[in-house]
Amino acid sequence: MLNKSLITCGKNSVLFTMPSLGAVSEESLKLSFNQDAENRERDAYEKGFESGEKAGFDMGEQKAMLLVERLESLLKEVTAVKETLIKELEPQIIELAVSMAKKILLKELTLDPSNIVEMTKEALSKIERTGQIVIKINPALHDLFMKHKPELLTIHHDIVFDVDSSVSRYGSVVRGPVEDIVTDLDEQLRNIIKDMGDRLAGD
Length: 203
Fold this sequence. Notes:
By secondary structure, the protein is an alpha+beta fold. It folds into two domains: 20-111; 113-202, hypothetical protein PF0899 fold. It has helices at residues 21-111, 114-126, 142-147, 149-153, 185-202, and strands at 5-9, 12-16, 133-137, 159-163, 173-175, 180-182. A hairpin with a 4-residue loop joins strand 5 (173-175) and strand 6.
């Protein structure tokens, strides 16, 4: 510890006193310590925030990837179930569609039996017309066909009508020299079902 000293320089004497280093050092150290503490706290907070942010982002990314993978898996399962259901339900769907179509067509033929004559005309236009053609009809349709006989004869001049109770009331059988065409509604629907079944089997 330095004491007060008297320094003599020439004729003048100056009293030299050492500064109070203890008080200055204590305040400086306290301020420096506080600043260092604040800096360390701020650095620790920033590093912790960055670390937490990165960890949270990585975790979120992993969860997102897992969610996407799960969705893809579910979509594949739904597609497989859909294809299986379609294959299993196809016969039932076809049967239902045919049943509904039959009801609608039968209602139309009942309300307007002249459609049966129109179907017979269509059959006449497709069959080979090189000889006599026999049109087999149900007794209930006899009067109807007699009424439209002139129209039928314009398609082919040699036509004979055969009344047969075994023939459907909703169609006729057109018999030519080499082939028969059945215009019966049930027969046509059976042909449609067969064609649809063949196409589905081919797929």
